[in-house]
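Why do we care about 3D structure at all? Because function follows from shape, and shape follows, mostly, from sequence. That is the central idea of this module. The next example makes it concrete: a single protein chain, its amino acid sequence, and then its structure expressed as tokens.
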Amino acid sequence: MSLVKTRGIVIKSCDTGDCDKILTLFTGEYGKLTIYVKGAKKASSKQMASSQVLCYSEFILYKGKDMYYINSCELIDAFYNVRKDIIKLTYAAHMIDILLDVIQENQEYKEILRLFLNSVHYISCDNKNPKIITSIFELRLLSYIGLSPVIDSCSLCHTKEIGEFYFSFKNSGIICEVCVASDKSAVMIPIGVVKAIIFVLYADLKQLFSFSMSDENTNLFEKIIRRYLNAKLEKNYKKLDLIKEL
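And the structure:
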């Protein structure tokens, strides 16, 4: 029996039968893995702690005909502060929805896994704004999959001499005050938001979540990145709308 050792975080859990679960695991080395966990819902199960969504563990797996099975596992982080808070959990669930659309099986996603783990970690912190953490995750993820906006010059005329900055969803990036005449849907953005976008695209992952903005700029940053994300992935992610109802 060939064994696979990997670390991964559960991003989906489905009950099957009376006591079993089918998990979707996100790993850095192998991408998305489907895992069958026998007896996961039993109180005596050694796998129960690692079978919950957002639980990050080290797994030893063996491959069956259609999916993997757990030989053993050891919990590393349960992100309990996120799972017990409905608002934090909703932000994390939104990020998971995006991952489920982006990641594939048998692909390497080490940087994206690190990004997601760091994002969930910072959402768990009470002194961090989950709104800006989630927007950082969205933008950096888009950059990893080759969908970065043009930000270092006007995406139409390519000038770097820009007085007023506008974000064009039609042209996937910044346009200048001259070119904005050709795109009435473009949104004017202050230099602080421009700098935030540049920072998120190019900063080292260790410093990625180290900046802050005013509430006004944070709200604008969130709206621009979410709209850009929806356009690029051709899907309207609505899970965060639930927060408005809480």
